Amino acid sequence: MTNQLTSNTVGIVKIExxxxxxxxxxxxxxxxxxNTYLHCYLPIQKLLPTHQVIQISAGEIYKNLxxxxxxxxxxxxxxxxxxxxLINLGGGxxxxxxxxxxxxxxxxxxxxxIPSTLLAQVDASVGGKVGIDFQHxxxxxxxxxxxxxxxxxxxxxxxxxxxxxxxxxxEVLKHCLIADKGMWEKIYSQNLQNIxxxxxxxxxxxQHSITIKQNIxxxxxxxxxxxxxxxxxxxxxxxxxSFYLQTDKPFLHGEAIAIGMIAESYLSYKNNLISKxxxxxxxxxxxxxxxxxxxxxxxxxxxxEFALQDKKNEQNTILTCxxxxxxxxxxxxxxxxxxxxxxxxxxx
Length: 348
Ligand SMILES: NC(=O)c1ccc[n+]([C@@H]2O[C@H](COP(=O)([O-])OP(=O)(O)OC[C@H]3O[C@@H](n4cnc5c(N)ncnc54)[C@H](O)[C@@H]3O)[C@@H](O)[C@H]2O)c1
Ligand SMILES: [Zn+2]
Prior knowledge:
Elements: E1 9-12, E2 28-33, H1 34-44, E3 51-56, H2 65-77, E4 85-90, H3 92-104, E5 110-115, H4 118-124, E6 129-134, E7 137-144, E8 149-152, H5 162-179, H6 181-189, H7 202-219, H8 234-245, H9 253-270, H10 276-290, H11 297-310, E9 313-314, E10 317-325, E11 328-336, H12 337-346
Parallel strand pairs: 1-8, 2-3, 2-4, 4-5, 5-8
Antiparallel strand pairs: 6-7, 9-10, 10-11
Helix pairs in contact: 4-5, 4-7, 5-6, 5-7, 5-9, 8-9, 8-11, 9-10, 9-12, 11-12
The protein binds nicotinamide-adenine-dinucleotide and zinc ion.
Zinc ion (ZN) binds next to helix 9.
């Protein structure tokens, strides 16, 4: 499927020469890491007009101010002017950091997102949040800034390590659970045991997810209310992710969010918002794809503490999102430390 893209729109394309035509007359810079240089940039290099590559090291640990300084320095050395455009070719790290560097360089130059991981295609490249980590705080420094365009080519997923693909798929399932029961049931009925490049029609899946995310972020771009539902699974999921980062068995983001979604679905059930059957269905598919975790008892208290740190909270209560049916989500729901602990046990 090929969509006609206008400025600030997001859609599935096949990367071809014409899509870069609208940047003729602008100096073009391309931000990559070593993996996207090899797997994404080299295959499309010939399609690009004259450009300058800026390469950084892959990984979340480089999503910091020091790398931004290098990017700004390269833009300066190669005399990027206010009319230049920065193309961010990579996963969420490249998109978030490249977007932030572009939005701040000379008070803002154009940027284009070409997301190359599933997570970046269905989540990070949509909604206009860009930024970097700062002193162990994730996405602590950043701005809202819309790219000129987001070009999504699912061909890039072919070289993505399978674990990364599966991790990104958790955000796809999240979008179904919060906004589309029909798609949830369609995926559920396929009885998938694993996620691989051959498991699904990725154009359909990615388009479905970005439509949902765009629809929500267009209604509430600055996360005053509704946009919070995109955090379903993330209150407990982030706490799990942060806790296990200190161990020798860290989870990928989506793997932790999958457990968080089981736990928060359990709380939805316990609060009489969804049926036991719905909870069991959610747990079944998520455990089928992400494995059955057993979070050991001594860890549970520590994970609860992470959940409390993570959000604005009053005393022992934190606000989260819960499902009130499959395909619908409500936000600002108060949950207690005791409930989080119980939900973690129920997600095992
Ligand atoms: N802005 C937002 O709204 C938003 C939303 C969700 C997540 N994020 C951010 O996204 C980041 C995570 O993104 P991610 O999961 O894409 O991580 P990532 O950018 O680190 O990419 C994961 C790995 O895959 C490699 N890679 C990328 N594309 C590839 C390809 N096509 N073939 C082979 N290897 C490839 C990368 O080099 C990297 O090693 C986090 O920093 C998170 O905060 C932002
Ligand atoms: Zn997420």
